[in-house]
Amino acid sequence: MSEQHVKLPEGNIEKHTTTLNLGPTHPATHGVFQNILELDGERIVSATSTIGFIHRAFEKIAERRPLYQITPLTDRLNYCSAPLNNMGWHLTCEKLLNIHTPKRVDYLRVIIMELSRISDHLICNSIVGVDSGAFSGFLYLMQYRELIYEIYEEICGSRLTTNMGRIGGFERNFSAVAWDRLEKFLNEYPAVLKEFENLFVRNRIFMDRTIGCGPINADLALNYGFTGPNLRAAGVDYDVRVHTPYSSYQDFNFTIPVGTTGDCYDRFLVRQQEMWESISIIKQAYQKIQEFKGIEADVYHADVPEYYLPDKTDVYTKMEALIYHFKIIMGETNIPHGEVYNSIEGANGELGFYLIADGGRSPYRLHFRRPGFIYYQAYTELIRGGMLSDAIITMSSLNLIAGEIDA
Amino acid sequence: MNLTNEIIQQKLTEKFGDQLYDFSEPYGMLTFKAPKDLNLKVLQFLYDDETLRFRFLTDLQAVHYPNSKGNELAVVYHLHNLVDNVRIRFKVFTDIAKPDVFSATALYRSANWMERETYDFFGVNFIGHPNLIRILNVEEMDYFPLRKEYPLEDMTRVDKDDEMFGR
User: What is the SS3 assignment for A249?
Assistant: First the structure.
C-alpha cells in the first residue's frame, strides 16, 4: 500500500451499511424529496425524510390577501389537480359567507372536479407503471391528460395552475368548444383506460412487482391520518364525497372502491376503479346539465355581487357593477366573523381548509390540511425492510406531490 | 342512535365537569375550549369512550392571538368520528412566554409532523414529542414566522398609500 492511498479512520470498517442520499433532485422521486437511507446491500435498514424544499409560506401570504387572491395559492398545492383545490377553496368561502350555489353550478363543478381527479390518478398510475419498468402506458395515457388540460384551457384560460372559478361559480359559461372536448374525452378515454388496464392489471411482472410492496393495514393507516385512495386501498371506505356531500354529490350514483392489503397493487387498483367511477359521474352530470332549459341553462354563478366579479360589459355600463368590481379588485370587502373547517375529497384524500375570519379584509388565519403532508410521514415505516427499488415504487404509488406537502 | 353535539357535550361535561368551557357550534361543528393540562386527557377520553369514538385526528394547528395576554397561542385539534361521521374541534390556550403543551404523538402517529409544523411556525413546545425539530423551514431560522409580530411586507415601503387603499 503506497502513501497515496486514503487511510480510513479507525472503526470505519465496522459499519456494514451504506448511506444513500436519495434526492432531493433524484429523477426517480418525481419531485423534491430527500430521503437519507441506510442500506444493507439493497435492503433499507432505516430512512429519514426531509421536506420543505419548496415551502412557499402560503398560510402567511394568505393572511394579507382578499379571498379571491388566495385561489391561485391553492393551485400550487397539489398541482396535478389544481381545479380540485380551487373548488375546495371556493366551497370553503361559500360556507363561511353562507352562499348557496345553483344546482347547475354544482354540476359544472362536479364535472371539473372529477376531470381533475382523473388527471391526477392517471398520472399517478402511469408513473407507477414507469417505475416498475413499463413506459408505454404512461405515454399513452398522457395524451388524455393533455385533452383534459385543453378542456381547462377552454374554461378558464390556463392549463396547469388553473385559478379556475370564482366564489359563487365560474367566470363564464362553458363554451360549445369545451362541451365538444368533454364529449370527445368521454367517447375516447374509456377505451384507452381499458387498454391501459389490460397492460397492467393481470400482467405477471407488474403483479409480482407491486403485490406486497409497501403495504399498510387499516388501523395503522388511520392512525397515520391516511385519507383518500391510499386509505381506501387499506380497506376503509371513507370518502368525503359520501360522508359529507358537497356540491350536490348526493345527486349522483357511484361506488367507493376499497382494497384489502394497502399495498402498491391495491392502491393502483383503487385509483384505476376511481377513474371509472369518475367517468360515470361526469356522464351523469353532463346528462343533468342538458336537462336545464331556457334561462336556467345560462346559470353559471350564484347571485353574490359582493364577492362575484361582475361581467366586464356590465362594469363599463352599470354603476353597481363598477362599484363592486372596484371593491373586489382592491380587496375592500370585509369578510364576516367566522370560523369554518371545510373539506373536500381531493385526489389524494381529505383536502381541508381551516379558515378564521375576524371581520377584516383578509383571513385572520388560514390552514390547509394537505393530505400528502400527513400521510408522507408513514413513508419511512412503509419502506423499512424492503428493497431500494420498492421504495421508489411505493413513493410514486402514494402519489406524493411536493407542492402539496410543502405548502 | 345518532351521535349529536348535545350527547357529546353532555358526555364531556359528565367527565370533566366545568373545566371545559365555551361550547359553541360555528357552522354546525361542536367547538369547545379546554385547559392546556387537560388536552391529552380530553383526547384520550374522546378516543376511548365507546359512544364518542373520535379516533381520527383530522388536523392540528395553532393560531396566534397577540392581544389576549397569557393566552396568546391556541392549539386547535380537529377530530373525526368516522363511524358516526361527526367532527368536533377543541382548543387549548397557552402563554407565549412558556408555550408548553403535551404532545399527542403517543395517541396519534399523524400528530408527529403536524406538531412539528406547529412548532416550526408558532414555537409551540410539545412536551413528549419524539423529534421536535423544524420541518418546513430551515433549521437555522431563529423565529417563528406565522406569529403575528412578523409582518408579511416590508413596512418601510412608501410606494403604497394604505390610507387610500387599505389592506
Answer: helix
For chain A, the domains span 50-406
List the pLDDT tens digit at each of the 407 positions of chain A.
456 666 656 655 667 788 888 878 887 778 888 999 999 888 999 999 999 899 999 999 999 889 999 999 999 999 999 999 999 999 999 999 999 999 999 999 999 999 999 999 999 999 999 988 888 889 989 999 999 999 999 999 999 999 999 999 999 999 999 999 999 999 999 999 999 999 999 999 999 999 999 899 999 999 999 999 999 999 999 999 999 999 999 999 999 999 999 999 999 999 999 999 999 999 999 999 999 998 888 999 999 998 998 988 999 999 999 999 999 988 888 899 999 999 999 999 999 999 999 988 899 999 999 999 999 999 999 999 889 989 999 999 999 999 999 88
ipTM associated with this complex? 0.90
Domain that holds residue B54: 5-143
In this structure, the number of other CB atoms found within 10 A of the CB of residue A403 comes to 23
Q: Answer whether B41 touches A (CB < 8 Å).
A: no
Interface of A with B in 324-343 (CB under 8 A): 330-332, 338-341, 343
- Which of B40, B118, B47 minimizes the C-alpha distance to A223? B47
* Shortest Cα distance, chain A CAs vs residue B11, angstroms: 23
Q: Does domain A50-406 have CATH number 1.10.645.10?
A: yes
The residue behind cell 378515454 is A189
3-state percent breakdown (helix, strand, coil) of chain B, nearest 5: 30, 25, 45
Task: Please judge whether A244 and B85 are an interchain contact, meaning their C-beta atoms are less than 8 angstroms apart.
Answer: yes
> What CATH number is attached to the domain comprising B9?
3.30.460.80
Assess if residue B134 is contained within a domain.
yes
Of A55, A95, A332, the CB nearest to B136: A55
B2 touches chain A (CB under 8 A): no
Residue of A328, A354, A358 to mutate, interface with B, max B Cβ within 10 Å: A354
> Cβ atoms within 10 A of the Cβ of B27, count?
13
Structural domains counted in chain B: 1
Q: Flag whether B160 is in a domain.
A: no
| CA nearest to A207, candidates A276, A261, A142 | A261
Nearest CA in chain A to B82: A238
Mutation site for A-interface testing, chosen from B54, B56, B121 by largest number of A Cβ within 10 Å: B56
- The H or E element containing residue A38 is strand A34-40
